[in-house]
Design goal:
The protein has 122 residues and is mainly alpha-helical. It has 4 helices and 2 strands.
Length: 122
């Protein structure tokens, strides 16, 4: 119904950083499954807004491609708002977007050596 939220975690966590010991194939498989799930949620007429947090980081990590993301954008019905986050800019994707925001970090606990914190960063 209206006003309802759903959250789904896809992926296997950190990729090649912190204590990641998982084979890259596990990350790749999870990214592919997550991409298929995202497409199903964008096209199922259930949601007005779909947020794909850190999906562009999957491109940064070579788990997905820019073409994968372009296909996802093309599949989006006009009435669905699709938000994607990440750390790097992809001009081809920016061209397809209605709105692009570049946020700049002013201060972060990592600057003091504090690693990602449960409940805040993940």
């Amino acid at each position: 119904g209206e006003g309802q939220l759903e959250f789904r975690v896809v992926g296997k966590g950190w990729v090649r950083i912190l204590s990641d010991q998982k084979p890259i194939e596990d990350h790749e498989e999870a990214a592919r499954e997550g991409l298929a799930f995202a497409k199903s949620q964008i096209t199922n007429n259930k949601f007005q807004v779909v947020i794909l947090d850190e999906i562009l980081s999957a491109v940064d990590s070579a788990l997905l491609t820019v073409d994968d993301i372009k296909e996802l954008i093309r599949a989006k019905p006009s009435e669905v708002h699709l938000l994607m986050t990440g750390h790097n800019e992809y001009p081809e994707l920016a061209e397809m977007a209605d709105l692009v925001t570049n946020m700049e970090k002013v201060k972060h606990p990592y600057d003091k050596g504090i690693l990602a914190q449960s409940g805040v960063d993940f």
